[in-house]
Design brief:
There is one protein chain. The chain is an all-alpha fold and 457 residues long. The chain has three domains: 1-183, MFS general substrate transporter like domains (Growth Hormone, Chain: A, Up-down Bundle), CATH 1.20.1250.20; 203-389, Up-down Bundle (Growth Hormone, Chain: A), CATH 1.20.1250; 391-457, no CATH class. The chain has 18 helices and two strands. The protein has helices at 3-24, 26-36, 41-44, 46-65, 71-91, 95-123, 129-158, 160-181, 198-203, 208-220, 222-228, 231-237, 246-270, 273-294, 298-313, 315-327, 332-358, 366-388; strands at residues 430-431, 434-435. A two-stranded antiparallel sheet has the order 1-2. A hairpin with a 2-residue loop joins strand 1 (430-431) and strand 2. Helix 4 (46-65) packs antiparallel against helix 17 (332-358), helix 6 (95-123) runs antiparallel to helix 7 (129-158) and helix 10 runs parallel beside helix 17 (332-358). The longest helix is centred in the first third of the chain and has 30 residues, at 129-158. It starts with a helix and ends in a 22-residue tail after the last strand.
Length: 457
């Protein structure tokens, strides 16, 4: 990655840091909002649900409506819209108006992350794609380490309204950085087959693998939110930590998310993405189960506060990489849908975790929800791997060699584009699904000089 690419990814990370801070900071601002606007804390919690609902609705709709617009200008516009939303949140005169503004503020959120992921993926080579997207998502995870504690501190000493102003300032800085550092996407003529088109974006969803990837994201990532939503009462009521220890524990949780995101990106660039997703989902089942039993011990629970999010967020870059790869030349809507799935996971995980607590199973029972959700996600990931099958079937020659055919007077190697674009030996006529008739799908043959391989070793 050269310097210009790193600068572009850095400013996209700054934008995602502002968005992540704006999304999660409300957790720390709720007490001040409830007191100032004369509502209960439970009612103030609807602000979080309203923002998440805006993300789920806005991600596919705004991406679909703007599919033909230049990506760089659209990213800038979305970040500016988010900044305006946070400024209006700070100026809201009452709870009703604040609830509406938080919903509207969430609309551009998912569309930004979808487009920023695609922008990051297109700026680098294929083998660096997951790491590039992980740099963008790193801003979101670092928001839990730095942004949320800072805005919480500001709200405790200056009120909740300056907290939203601070988030807007970060987003304005990010928008300026995008203008200065992010390159423009290549202009594709409107009549070109490769030109962005809503119909092409929608047709990508005919691939059942995209729906399976979205299901893994929605169910598997719900595991982390089922635990994260109740981490404070779990640590104070079960592990026995003092209330003053919650902020350091939340920082530890955010560090686990950050490092898990980066390690997951490295794995997704180096190994098969489907195997990485399945391995992470299976691993988080074990970790969540261990967290349930470790919650009664301070040292063990503190370790799991880091390990649990570390394991879960390793799937983020792999999932985003996979869905962009599956969508092919129409990745914008699919990438936006992936972030909508993440926010559905947020709401679903918190809701299910709350049900177990309300049923009297204890504050550490959301970890059992994480076990269940992770198990279902692992099964779906395994089904996706089994249904997919090999992208190309290679038939061996009948010359007595049972391994790679030698370079005799046979067709030489051709790259066949599938899930794996490495050149493979081709003998005969093939498509991406196997052997075809030479009459219906002729493939040009390149002959090589005769070559005697000699005796086999």
């Amino acid at each position: 990655m050269h310097a210009q690419q790193r600068r572009a990814l850095l400013v996209l990370a700054i934008c995602s840091f502002g968005l992540g801070t704006g999304e999660y900071a409300a957790l720390g601002l709720l007490p001040g909002i409830a007191t100032d606007l004369h509502v209960s804390v439970a009612s103030a919690g609807h602000l979080i649900s309203a923002y998440a609902l805006g993300v789920v609705i806005g991600a596919p709709l705004l991406t679909a409506a703007s599919v033909r617009l230049p990506r760089k200008g659209l990213i800038i516009g979305l970040v500016l819209a988010l900044a305006v939303g946070n400024i209006l949140s700070a100026l809201a005169p009452g709870f009703g108006s604040l609830l509406v503004v938080r919903f509207l503020s969430g609309l551009p959120h998912g569309a930004f992350f979808g487009l920023a992921s695609v922008q990051a993926a297109t700026m680098v080579s294929a083998e660096q794609r997951s790491r590039a997207m992980a740099m963008v998502f790193a801003g979101l995870t670092i928001a839990n380490v730095v942004g949320v504690p800072v805005t919480t501190y500001v709200s405790q000493h200056a009120g909740w309204r300056p907290g939203f102003v601070l988030v807007a300032a970060i987003e304005l800085i990010g928008a300026g950085g995008v203008l200065a550092a992010v390159p423009r996407s290549p202009q594709i003529p409107a009549g070109s087959p490769d030109a962005p088109h809503l119909r092409r974006e929608m047709w990508a969803f005919r691939n059942p693998q995209i729906w399976l990837a979205l299901a893994v994201a929605m169910i598997g990532c719900g595991a982390i939110f089922s635990t994260f939503s109740y981490i404070a009462p779990m640590m104070t009521g079960v592990a026995g930590f003092a209330q003053s220890s919650i902020t350091p524990l939340l920082v530890l949780f955010g560090l686990g998310m950050t490092f898990g995101n980066l390690v997951g990106a490295h794995l997704a660039d180096r190994y098969d993405v489907g195997r990485v997703i399945y391995g992470v989902m299976a691993g988080q089942v074990i970790v969540a189960g261990a967290f349930y039993f470790a919650a009664n011990n301070r040292i063990a629970s503190a370790v799991m506060v880091f390990v649990f999010p570390f394991c879960n967020t390793m799937a983020f870059p792999a999932l985003q990489n996979r869905i962009i790869g599956l969508a092919g030349g129409a990745p914008n809507l699919a990438a936006g849908a992936m972030h909508a799935a993440f926010n559905i996971a947020n709401s679903m995980g918190a809701w299910l975790g709350g049900l177990t607590i309300a049923a009297g199973w204890g504050y550490n029972s959301p970890n059992l929800v994480a076990v269940g959700l992770g198990s279902v996600a692992a099964v779906i990931a395994l089904i996706a791997a089994l249904v997919q099958g090999p992208p190309v079937r290679v038939f061996r020659p009948t010359s007595g060699w049972d391994d790679v055919p030698p370079p005799t007077n046979r067709p030489t190697r051709f790259p066949v584009v599938g899930m794996n674009t490495n050149p493979i030996p081709i003998v005969g006529h093939y498509s991406n699904s196997g052997r075809t008739s030479p009459d219906t799908n002729p493939i040009p043959v390149i002959r090589t000089p005769a070559y005697d391989p000699g005796p086999r070793r």
